[in-house]
Amino acid sequence: MIKKTAILVLVISLLLSVLSPVSTQAQTELTILESSATAEFPDELSFSLSAESAAYITDIRLHYQVYKDSFARVTSEAHIEFAVASSITVSWSWDMRKTGALPPGATVGYWWSVTDASGSMVSTAPAAVQFDDNRYSWQSLTSGELTLYWYRGDDSFAWEIMDAAQKALTRIAQDTGVHLMKPVSLYIYASAQELQEAMVFSQEWTGGLAYTRYGVIAIGIAPNNLQWGKRATIHELAHLVTQQMTFNPYNYLPNWLNEGLSMYAEGELEALYVDYLEQGVTENSLISVRSLASPFSAFAGQTYLAYAQSYSLIEFLISSFGHDRMYKLLSTFKQGNSHDGVLMKVYGFDMDGLDNLWRDWITKRYYLGA
């Protein structure tokens, strides 16, 4: 009798387990159905998510990181507002007009975390989206670490810019000992206006810029303005080479060094800048080297003079002390020393000493005709 009762209890238990709808774990299972991201260049990056659970979904967060040169990986978090439900579809948009824009080709990594009322939480696998300017049909050309993107002009147009860029990289390496250590993307817009339309906050005079931490250059070059375009490309490319060489968490390059290296990379100083430099010498209106370490003036005349002097300072240092010292200067800056400290360590004088030596040199060259 006892044996029959035990068998009956076992049968009833098995029947109950078969007829029971789902287990407790299955009832509270939380599932991500879909996750996506789309770029609406240059204003917005939109993210969307669909999820469901047997319990109410109570919390949704988007986590994202911008990939760029940095000494600390920063993760931003968007806490999504939504009506609590067991099945949801939500979206969140990163409005660049409120935060400042990303350059074309920038990459953003992201993932979602979702929690329901039972305490279950799931996260999506990390994904990445490129913030591409898909308003144009881009063509591409790659040589070494440099990839050029353009959409107007034939192949010879692109090759002329690429050839100028590669020759400049060779010249930069010869003059300073530095070279590209990471890939660089160069986006050629068909005009300054179309470049400015690709920027959320632009100035009417913007013709090109380097997003140094992203390894991206954007320039507006019309096919009939190729000569200017090649010089502008070289200038911005030199900024990226310098950035890769000297990037550190402690300080920044003095502006005269950063801009001077880019001006020097272009080749011989253009006549307009020579005129401003000669005028500064003859009228005793040169800007001090210490002042040139800070951002340049917004006044056009002072800006032209600042760029001309920066070129001349690099020319003076390289012609007077050699290429090896310039490489050592940049290498020492990467270690995080002060402006005066780096100059003192490499050359034996600070910015005031450089100012005095350079003024004597430039005066003899332009004013006395030596």
Task: Explain what the structure shows.
With 370 residues, this protein is of the alpha+beta class. It folds into three domains: 24-131, Sandwich (Immunoglobulin-like); 139-247, Glutaredoxin (3-Layer(aba) Sandwich), CATH 3.40.30; 250-370, no CATH class. It is 44% helix and 25% strand. It has 13 helices and twelve strands. The strands form two sheets. Strands 1, 2, 3, 4, 5, 6 and 7 form a seven-stranded antiparallel β-sheet that branches. It has a five-stranded mixed β-sheet with strand order 8-9-10-12-11. Helix 4 (155-176) links the parallel strand 9 and strand 10. The radius of gyration is 30 Å and the shape is elongated. The N and C termini lie far apart (124 Å). The model is unreliable at 1-27 (pLDDT under 50).
Mean pLDDT: 90
Strand element count: 12
SSE order = HHEEEEHEEEEEHEHEEHHHHHHHH
Q: What would you call the shape? A: elongated
- Share of helix among residues? 40-55%
Keywords:
370 residues; alpha+beta; Immunoglobulin-like; Glutaredoxin; seven-stranded antiparallel sheet; five-stranded mixed sheet
Topology:
Elements: H1 2-19, H2 24-27, E1 30-40, E2 44-66, E3 76-79, E4 85-95, H3 96-99, E5 106-116, E6 121-123, E7 127-131, E8 139-143, E9 146-150, H4 155-176, E10 184-189, H5 192-197, E11 208-211, E12 216-220, H6 226-246, H7 255-266, H8 271-282, H9 289-292, H10 300-321, H11 323-334, H12 339-347, H13 351-367
Parallel strand pairs: 9-10, 10-12
Antiparallel strand pairs: 1-2, 2-3, 2-4, 2-5, 5-6, 5-7, 8-9, 11-12
